[in-house]
Write a structure and sequence with these properties.
alpha+beta
């Protein structure tokens, strides 16, 4: 008699499992269909991710003739650093005529000083940060070739790569080398230039081509207008002692090519 409740319980448990199994296809069918519809409508052929090979050229790197607050100290101009950058990029084709891009910006200018015979450099000012673009599209050739152009913004983080001799307080590199090329300042403080973060305006134009499924090629031009604030001073035990404040003109034109994988 004691086995009857046990057997009855096993039967009920088995019935429950069979009912659950029978209900599984119906319970998961709707989410699966919803996910597939969402992918087809909002992701398929709309998202591309790739790497952009870019070279930036400064378009305005000279001290103004008025000697306004632009530039600081004896810095007279900024030269291109001639670097080639490899930057990631994510693109979303929101509609037939709109492309939204999240990429990266990079620019650098090597300082030159007007008060020395060789126009020596204190170091290189740099800008790096994300770029957000919203571009209009013009489809060509059965939607495999697109022209795109539009505005955007750049949120750049400023930096400065100092020359060792300048950072240690020497007048020029030759004097530093004659002193044995020291790496530390014996008085416990050193000079420093700080380039602040900056907001830039971007204008972009280019052409995108999809020769085969899941492959996208792009060539573009981007002009960025940006002028970060700059400070120089001495760094010691009490922190940063600012001596002078100004700004650098780091407007730049970027020429780039990109290869993307399309979802």
């Amino acid at each position: 008699m004691k086995r009857i409740p046990i057997l009855l319980g096993l039967v009920l448990f088995a019935s429950g499992l069979s009912g659950l199994a029978a209900s599984d296809p119906e319970s998961y069918a709707a989410p699966m269909l919803f996910d597939q519809a969402f992918y087809d409508d909002w992701i398929l052929d709309r998202i591309s991710i790739g790497l952009r090979i870019s070279h930036a050229t400064l378009t305005d790197g000279k001290r103004p003739a008025s000697y306004s607050k632009d530039f600081i100290g004896a810095i007279n101009k900024l030269d291109d650093d001639d670097e080639i950058s490899i930057l990631p990029e994510l693109r979303y084709w929101t509609a037939r005529y709109l492309l939204v891009t999240l990429g990266m910006d990079h620019a650098a200018g090597r300082t030159r000083n007007f008060n020395t015979p060789n126009h020596h450099s204190d170091g290189t000012a740099t800008l790096d940060g994300p770029v957000l673009l919203a571009e209009g599209l013009l489809p060509l050739m059965d939607d495999t070739l697109f022209l795109h152009a539009g505005p955007g913004i750049a949120l750049d983080k400023g930096g400065f790569d100092h020359e060792t001799w300048w950072r240690l307080g020497y007048s020029d590199e030759q004097g530093w080398r004659q002193s044995g090329s020291p790496k530390k300042e014996p008085r416990g403080h050193f000079r420093e230039i700080r380039v602040d973060d900056a907001f830039g305006i971007v204008l972009s134009a280019g052409v995108a081509w999809r020769p085969i499924d899941r492959l996208e090629l792009d060539v573009s031009l981007r002009h960025t207008w940006v002028e970060p604030d700059v400070r120089w001073g001495y760094v010691g035990r009490r922190g940063f002692d600012e001596q002078q404040k100004g700004e650098f003109t780091l407007d730049h034109l970027s020429v780039s090519a990109m290869v993307c994988w399309v979802f």
